[in-house]
Amino acid sequence: MPIISMENVWYTYNRGTPIQTPALSGLSLDISRGGFVALAGHTGSGKSTVLRHLNGLLLPHRGRVLIEGSDTRDKSFRKGLWTRVGLVLQYPERQFFEETVFREVAVGPDNLGLSPGEVEDRVLEALAVVGIDRRLAKETSPYALSGGEQRRVALASVLAIRPGVLALDEPTAGIDFRGRQRIFEALVELKRHQGATIIMASHNMDDMARMADQIVVIKEGRALLEGTPRQVFASHGLVREAGLSLPFPSEVMARLREKGFNTGTPALTVDEAAEEIINNMGARKTGQ
User: Fold this and answer.
1) Domain edges within the chain
2) Smallest Cα–Cα separation from 160: which of 117, 124, 197, 115?
């Protein structure tokens, strides 16, 4: 059984008002335990709305969302859903309210009713995973950090709860390369060693190509395309129809294919693209 199932989910913002806006239009999606799923879509496609359904912040107007077989409409189940599905919003720094980084990360473990010693262990462990120094954490306000550090603190705040599912909304938007790498290293560590299920909304196709097991392309609240990165980026026409670009290596290979090169399957990395080009050029010389 999938750890998450969205079954024909419909949702409209400001429903019944003159400014109502459809967000999800019959979207269905299954997510396997331990997977890394990337939600791709243009701004307004509905991917952020999907994430907010996963921990009960939003409830479908039609259809249903099941987490480990339980319906999010069940109030008693939804009450503890935050401990199962950790949600990191696109601008988590807007939700900080504690005086220090340490206390910010400790909010979740405190609410679980853990002892002070257990709370400290969880906070330090989570900070270590995202690469925040413990001395900095106890002395520094989260508002004094850089944007990348703030995103990592927000991620640590969720990790300290130890949820089985992480739902991340554009976790690396506006962050420099080093900061993005640090966050992705933390996610890989969690997936590999703790079996976490990760669902990440993003518009960065290069990140998705490197990180995701499964990509779901969303357009106008529906799943337009779904599959492995290679399967999805092979359908470059549909990817572009959704208002998205291909990863740089895949884009290069697609353009070469349009010029008559026999480039085969989409390249997901620069190394793959280089190898494919070299092989193709060698084949052409041999043919000559």
Assistant:
1) 1-84+163-242, 101-158, 247-288
2) 124
